[in-house]
Amino acid sequence: MSTGKGDIELAGVAKSYDGSTYAVDGINLKIPDGAYCCLLGPSGCGKSTILRMIAGHEDPTVGEILIGGEDVVGLDPVERRTAMMFQSYALFPHLSVRDNIAFALRVRGMAKGARDDKVDAMIEKVQLGEFANRLPAQLSGGQQQRVALARAAITEPRVLLLDEPLSALDEHLRIKMRAELSRMQRDLGITFIHVTHTQMEAIALADMVVVMDKGQIRQAAPAPEVYARPRDRYVAEFIGGQNVLSGTIGQVNGVRATLAGARFSAINIPIVQSRRLESGQMLDIAVRRDDIDLLRPGGAGVPEGSTAIEGSVIGVEYQGNFVKVMLEAGGEDEFVAYVPERRFFEDALSIGDRVLAVWQIDHAHLLA
Amino acid sequence: MTAPISARTGTTMMRRKVRKSSDRPWTFYVLASFFALYVIALYGPMISIYILSFQDVQGGLVFPMRGVSLYWFNELIMQTRAGDVSGAFSRSMYLAVSVTVITVVVSFMAGMAFRRRFRGDTIVFYLMIASLVAPGLVLGIGIGLGFNMLGIETSWYTSALGAQLSWTLPFGILVMFAVMSRLNNDWEEAARDLGASRAQTIILVILPILAPGLIAVALFGFTLSYDEFARTLQTAGPLNTLPLEIWSMTLNVTSPSLYALGTVSTVVSFIIIGVSLGSIVMLQRRSAARLNNAK
What are the residues facing B23 on neighbouring strands? Predict the structure, then answer.
C-alpha cells in the first residue's frame, strides 16, 4: 500500500452485467489529483457504476483503473485507499455518531486511546461535538451527511467517492451542504468524485464536469466550458441555459456563413478555425438564453454584427433577477430568452406579441 | 433545540387529559367486552388449576379448596406417585435449548442466503413450507418408523430433536425473512468500504442490527419446542419430555400434583418470555440511555 497520489485514470473501462448490454461502454478519463470532479447524467447513464468500479465494489468487465499510477482492479477498497459516501449514507443505526466515525479505525485494530484522539479531532472538524453520543436516527439529514463524510474521511483516503450525496436533502439544505462539501474538499486536499443528476450542483461544485449518456462520456471539461461551450446537442440540452437550432449551411464566405432551418430563414453564424463548414452540411448551433435580446419588429432593425429569428411569445415567467420569456421560434420545442428584470419592464411583452430574438453572431456556438 | 420538542409533548399530554371517556364510540365498549371475555376464557381455567395446585394433602381435583400447602409440589419432585417429572423437565429444557440454538443459527444463515436468488431457491422454500404444513403426528410417526427401519433407537436428543426442528426451522426462517427486510445492503457495503472483513461485518454490523429479530426467533424456537407434543410423541424414545409426561399423567394420575406440574411449567414459560422481552427492552434502554447522555 503506497502513499500514492489521488490522480485517477480510467482506460477503456466497460461494464456489462449480462454480457450483451453495457452499463458503461468504453470510458477513457483522467482526473487530476486533488480535483473536484462531478459525474453528471440522467439516471441509468452509468455514472454510479463508474463510481462503484473506482471504489472497488464492482469490477470492470474490461479496462484498467489506475489510482496514483497503479492498477487497482481486483483490490479491496482499503488497499485502493478510496472511501465512499453512500446515497443513503449507510450509517450504522446501532452505533453512536462517535462509534460510526471510529468504525474504520476499530476494524483495523487501532488501540482505543489513539482511536479516540483521531475521532475527537474529526468530530471537531465536522462540528458534531454536541451530537457525538447520539444515534443516527436522532440526527437531521444535514448532520447525518456530516457523519457519513467524517466516517469516510477518517481513514485518510486519497480519493473520496460521493454517490448522490445531496439528493436526500431538501432544496435549502442542499445548497448549504453543497458549500460544506466544497469546504471539506479544500480542507482535506484530496480528490473528490461526486455523482449527481443535478446540473446546477455539478456546475457549482466541480473543477471538472463529466457529462454522461448511455454509458459514454459526452464531454469532460471545466464547468464554465461545459456550460458556455457544450460539445453537442445532448450536452447543451442537458446542462441547460442554451437554445439549440438545427439547420443547413447555405453560403460560406470567409468570416461568416448562413444557416437556414425548416422553420426559420437564414441566420448568420460565425466561422471558427477548428471547423470546416461546407455548403449543404447539417449543423446544430447553441445560443445562450442570456445572450438573447428581444426587440419588437419594425423598430430600429437588427444591429450590425447581430442576427435574429422571428417568433411569438408563448409564455412569460418572472424569476426575480430576470424574466424567462418562452417563444415559439425556430421550430424548436422551446426557444427561451432570459431578459434582465429592469430591461424587461422598460417595454413589457405579453403572450402573443411578435418579437425578434436577436443575438451577436459571435456569441453563437457551433455544436458537433 | 429541545425546547420546541418538549412544548409539543406538553400539548399532546394536555389534549389527552382533556379528552373525556364519553368521547369513546360504542364500538369501544363492544370490542372491550369481547376482549374481556377472551381473557376470561383464556386464563380462567388455567387460574383455577394454579389455585387448586396449592391444596393440602387431602385435596382433590375440583373445588372447593381443601387447605393450603405446597404438598403437591413436593410430591412432584419426590416422584413418589407422579413418575419422573423432574427428569422430564430437565430433558425438555435441554431439548428446548438445543432446538433454540440450532434454530437461531440456521435461520440466520438461511435468511442471509435467501437475500439473493440461488439455484433451486424456490424448491428449498417450498420444501420448507411443506414441512410446516405437514400434520405433526404423521410426520412424527414417519420419523419414528424411519428410525426403526434403520435400526436406530429413537431418543429425545436424536429423533425428537430432528422432529422438532422440522417445525421450528421453517417458523424461524419465515420470521427471519421479515427481520431481514430491515437489512440494507448499503450497510454491508459501507462496512467493507471501511475495511471490515466479512466476519467483522457480521459481528459488528449485521448481528447487532438484527439482534431484536434474532431474540424473537429464539423465543419462537424455545416455546415451540418446550410444549411440542405431536411430533415428539412417536420420536422421543423410552424417556419422556415434559408435555409427554403431563399427557401420561392425565391418563393415570388423579391428584393435584398434575395441577402443581401445570403451575410449575407455566412459571417456567413466563420466566423464559420475561427474559426474552427483558433483553429486548434492555437493548432499547441502552440506546435510550445514550440519547439521555447526549442531552
Answer: none
Indicate whether A220 and A75 sit together in one domain. yes
CA distance A47 to A23: 9
Name every chain B residue with its beta carbon within 8 A of the beta carbon of A86.
Answer: 186, 189-190
pLDDT digits (tens, 9 = 90+) for A38-63: 999 998 898 999 999 999 999 999 99
Of A213, A233, A253, the one marking the end of a domain is A233
pLDDT value at position B98? Answer: 95
Report the gap between the CA of A12 and the closest CA in chain B (Å): 25
Q: Residue A90: its chain B contacts at CB < 8 A?
A: 184, 186-187, 189-190
Q: Are residues A363 and A214 in the same domain?
A: no
Distance CA B231, CA B167 (A): 8
How far apart CA A31 and CA A48 sit, in angstroms, is 16
Say which of A90, A95, A106 has its CB closest to residue B189: A90
Q: Cα separation of A209 and A201, whole Å?
A: 10
Q: Residue A147: its chain B contacts at CB < 8 A? A: none
Nearest CA in chain B to A99: B204
**pLDDT level of residue A297 (50, 70, 90 thresholds):** confident
Q: Residue A342 burial by CB count (10 A; 0-12/13-18/19+): exposed, middle or buried?
A: exposed
Cβ distance of A90 and B293 shorter than 8 Å: no
Q: Which fold has domain B85-294?
A: MetI-like fold (1.10.3720)
Chain B nearest C-alpha distance from A261 (Å): 51
Q: What is the pLDDT of residues A74-123, one digit of tens each?
A: 899 989 999 999 989 999 999 999 999 999 999 998 888 889 999 999 99
**Domain identity same for A20 and A45:** yes
What backbone phi and psi angles, to 5 degrees, belong to A31? -120, 120
Set of cell numbers at residue B283: 437493548
Which chain B residues contact residue A78 at CB under 8 A? 194-195
Number of domains observed in the structure of chain A: 2
Question: What pLDDT was estimated at residue B1?
Answer: 37
Give the domain range for residue A76. 8-233
Residue A2 lies in a domain: no
The verdict on a CB contact (< 8 Å) between A155 and B208 is: no
Nearest to A307 by CA among A227, A247, A233, A235: A247
Cβ neighbours for B286, distance < 8 A, ≥ 6 positions apart: none
ipTM at complex level: 0.81
A197, A217, A233: which is the final residue of a domain?
A: A233
Query: CA A93 to CA A10: how far, in whole Å?
Result: 35
Residues of B in contact with A135 (CB under 8 A): 287, 290-291
Residue type, A122: M
Output DSSP code: residue A28: E
Q: Are the CB atoms for A209 and A220 separated by under 8 Å?
A: yes
Report the C-alpha gap between B166 and B176 in whole angstroms. Answer: 16
Question: B287 touching A, CB under 8 A?
Answer: yes
Which grid cell sits at B161?
Answer: 430433536
Interface of B with A in 195-234 (CB under 8 A): 195-197, 200, 204-205, 208-209, 211
